Amino acid sequence: MQFEKRIVKFVGAAALLCGLVVGANAQVGSGWTSTSVSYNTQVSSGCSISGSTFYIDGGSGRAERRYTTLTSGSRQFQGTFKVNSLSGDRVSVFQTFSEVNGPKQMGAVEKSPARLYEVHGGATLASYSVGSSMRINTTATSGGTVVVYVNGSNKGTTTGVNNPYNKIGSYATASGAGPCSTTWSSVSFWRK
To answer: Is the pLDDT assigned to residue 25 strictly greater than 70?
Structure first.
């Protein structure tokens, strides 16, 4: 009986470990190669970054990571975000920014209705409740096409995002404001 319990525990631990390994390598599509992408931080007065948590105050501030610009080929971003608290509203948590055309793609959280939405055009990407976690993938080409995935599901394409780069954190949209605290985890990049 003790031997059988040990085997069950071992098999369960092995399955859990395999699940964690598979989850760490999750991505959309095929033919991608893991890559490292450097970043700098952008923090306005009254806002802060602590590790992977981005806090903005009650104004229209920002606390973000700005990853390097994609100059050729394609790049895929993946990460999981959780809005820890949102006393304000309509705060962007991820962007695919164009050096040529500005913030063409912005995913933001809105309290009512409780959703993650595309700032440009207002389309709902998914229902979202403060305190829950959500995985985001974006694929971007240097030619300007960005595709957004939420928990692995394709949610739309934006074009004209020339010389794109990724941004994550907390950023009050033009119609929004903090305070807001957002944590990002499991951030990875791939290239083609």
So the answer is: no
Non-local (6+) Cβ contacts of 70 within 8 A are 140, 141, 142, 163, 164, 165
Of 163, 174, 31, which is closest to residue 91 (Cα–Cα)? Answer: 174
Evaluate whether 125 touches 115 at the Cβ level (below 8 Å): yes
Q: Give the whole-angstrom CA distance, residue 61 versus residue 45.
A: 7
* Nearest of 107, 105, 100 to residue 143 by alpha carbon: 100
Which of 182, 185, 184, 176 lies closest to 60, judged by CA? 176
Strands 89-98 and 164-177: antiparallel
Locus of tokens 């030619």: 143
**pLDDT of amino acid 5:** 42
Give per-residue burial for 106-120: e unless 16+ CB within 10 Å, then b.
bbbbbbeeebbbbbe
Q: Taking residues 74-99, what's their average pLDDT?
A: 97
Q: Which pTM does this prediction carry?
A: 0.85
Q: What is residue 59's predicted lDDT score, i.e. its pLDDT? A: 85
